[in-house]
Amino acid sequence: MFKLEENWTLEQLACFDDILDVRSPAEYALDHLPEALNFPVLDDAERTRVGILYKKVSSFEAKKQGAALVATHIASHIAKHFADKTEEWKPLIYCWRGGTRSAAMAQVLNDIGWPACRLPGGYKAYRRRVIEKIAELAPRIRFVILCGRTGVGKTRLLKALQRQSKQVLDLEELANHKGSVLGEPTTGEQPSQKAFENRLCSTMRALDTEQVTYIEAESPKIGRIQLPTVLLNAIYKGQCIHIEAAVSSRVSFLISEYRHFLQNAKLFTQAVERLTDYAGQKKISYWLSLYETGKITELTEDLLLSHYDPFYVRAMKKHFKHYQNTDTTIQLDAIDEQNFAKAIALINRM
């Protein structure tokens, strides 16, 4: 039987042909190792039932009934999913803590002849290593921060840099959210906090720490995702590139970018009302009155000038070490791909 030592590393996980998560579907849905496939040895209802037996009847009765269920599921997985695997197939198997469920699957697969391996410590150990790896890598990454007030197209510029084969860390993409309080998941729901951190760790591990990594200036939270403090601290120390554009250009860009809000009164009202603690009820009422009377350009401009811009500048001055160094400022004549290309040319010369 092939074994991982207790001090296994994340890098060793790439040695396996497949990663099998044998936890229940609900556990898997909440979070799992990247690229792991779910082959539960107990479904959600069975896991609950066995747990109740363990607590209210006896561990013997729970193990007896649980073993029968586990054996049935393992047999089904072998027949339906593993039958075409060659003798060289090397899967990694894990459960919550590297206990009974993963041991049962690993034992059967080993007995068949596959060099299956159980992950010591299971998912919990993996999570510990994710947090440790983020803490290890964050200070080593040479961050260059795209700074700019709301509506200058920082995210679009970041993606343009990525298309030019520049190294980027797109936190909004990983968090599946546009970032601001008026943002929302780009497609579907946001990942769980743990799933975000797992994605973040995988992305950070792929970065070349000898190259600069471009990143957009972000708040500590992206939607409901909290950025790790160790990552924020590293970002705050990065070199800042200031992206600027005329207010009129920013207004036009935002109206286009957030058109879904303009077409959904309920969604827009809920989003704006989340600003009450920052702007006060009087200002909220004013913004909603502009919206209701169709004065969208005036509304967007006032949101920028009276709320987003002051809030952004205060936060940047407070946190970003090099924010007030204005030597690296790029003025966009318009917020479009042509001007992003010009900005990238300037960035390349910095």
Task: Describe the fold and architecture.
The chain is an alpha/beta fold. The chain has two domains: 10-130, Rhodanese-like domain (Oxidized Rhodanese, domain 1, 3-Layer(aba) Sandwich); 141-348, Rossmann fold, CATH 3.40.50. The protein is built from 16 helices and eleven strands. The strands form three sheets. Strands 6-7-5-10-11 form a five-stranded parallel beta sheet. A hairpin with a 2-residue loop joins strand 8 and strand 9 (225-226). It is elongated. The protein starts with 17 loop residues before the first strand and ends with a helix.
Question: Secondary structure elements and their pairing?
Answer:
Blueprint: E1 18-21, H1 25-30, E2 37-38, H2 44-56, H3 59-82, E3 91-94, H4 100-112, E4 117-118, H5 122-137, E5 142-147, H6 154-163, E6 168-169, H7 171-175, H8 193-205, E7 212-216, E8 221-222, E9 225-226, H9 229-236, E10 239-245, H10 247-257, H11 259-262, H12 265-273, H13 276-279, H14 281-292, H15 296-319, E11 329-332, H16 337-348
Parallel strand pairs: 1-2, 1-3, 3-4, 5-7, 5-10, 6-7, 10-11
Antiparallel strand pairs: 8-9
Helix pairs in contact: 2-3, 5-8, 6-16, 10-15, 12-14, 14-15
Shape: elongated
How many domains? 2
Major sheet characteristics? 5 strands, parallel
What structural class results from the helix and strand content? alpha/beta
Write a concise synopsis of the structure shown.
The chain has 350 residues and is α/β, with parallel strands linked by helices.
Key traits:
350 residues; Rossmann fold; Oxidized Rhodanese, domain 1; 2 domains; 5-stranded parallel beta sheet; 4-stranded parallel beta sheet
